[in-house]
Specification:
Radius of gyration of chain B: 19 Å
Oligomer: heterodimer
Shape of chain A: globular
Distance between the termini of chain A: 59 Å
Number of helices of chain A: 12
Strand order of the largest sheet of chain A: 1-2
Strand content of chain B: under 5%
Strand content of chain A: under 5%
Distance between the termini of chain B: 45 Å
Radius of gyration of chain A: 21 Å
Largest interface: A-B, 28 and 20 residues
Helix content of chain A: over 70%
Chain lengths: ~350, ~50
Amino acid sequence: MELLGLSPALLALFVSFGFAVGVLFGFFGMGGSFLITPTLLILGYPAPVAIGSGLAFYFGTSVIAVLKHYDVGQVDYRLGALLFVVLSIGIELGSRLVFGLEALGIAGLVTGVAYVVLLAGIGLLFLRRAYRLEDAEDDDDEVSDEEIPPVARKIQSYEVPPMLSLTSGGRASLWTILGSGGGVGLISGLIGVGGGFIRMPAIYYLIGTPLTAAVGTSLFAGLFSGAFGTFTYGMSGGVDLAVVSLLLVGSALGARIGSAATAIVEEDDVIVYFGIMMVLASAGIGLSELANWLGTGALDVLSVVLLVGSSFAVASIILYQVLVSAEGAETDTQSATDSKG
Amino acid sequence: MIEFAGLPPLAQATALVGVVFLQAVALYVGYGILERVASPLIDRVTSASA
């Protein structure tokens, strides 16, 4: 029996995996499409379909994120519009590169290797942050949301014309914007990630806007570039709408729960698990690439377990902590009522 | 699911973006309504069983 062209097992997998990814996205603010594309690759979807569907999923989650934060804080609309154009050009170039690599028969390999490096890098960064949190006694090094980081000020000091005025008051070279936006767009189009986790730091550290404006502008530019990525891959039939829809059904619910969990569970308590999950996901994709290279499917199950299983495990840890906190709060209320009585 | 195959590529891609957009809006609104309806019900069941 098949529904939407998928077996019941795959159908359940996509909805539940979407839910787990949604919990992670809602809680950590990242972890959307960069878990989807490699999973689709391991499940045997062609690279252009895995990437296109990952971008379409990212677009859907961006729409939900913008609806949730319709007051997206400070948005530098001129910078956002310029970034959208540059990101779109980068995505277009990245997608052409993917189809070129696909013609050579190495798109899956290139994308897989890029993901191994990317996920391991992000995972190690999170583990480092978790290690530092253990050592830190206080939060004195927290930066103000309105502050521009020193590295961005240094870049802004090299006045390479034409210079553009930013809403926040600073000035940035058009070449910095073209370079950082184009680079992020190229990565998005090449490996099918929304790129929020590199776009926001690029706006903050390279272009040099305050953090609040970087978040809002990144969300604004990301929504439109996500739509453009979906359109670009959709033109060549590279988006599996059934898969995207099922993932969105799960993730829209998961994101609500994950977002609500931020009020109950401390991010610092679970950040180490997120780092471990990323490293395991990277290992899963590495194993899958190794299996392809060896010409055996024996490691495929292990790859899926590492990639999907680690996401489920971290989402479950967050939900478990929510339940424990809720029970604790209920017990406290009960004892307070009993002592009053 | 929704058959776009008969359409030219430009229309296919535009329809795809539209469908994903509408689905995301519908899910956001739908789960929002569900949350509003379900929360008081869950509270009532919890307080009744306590």
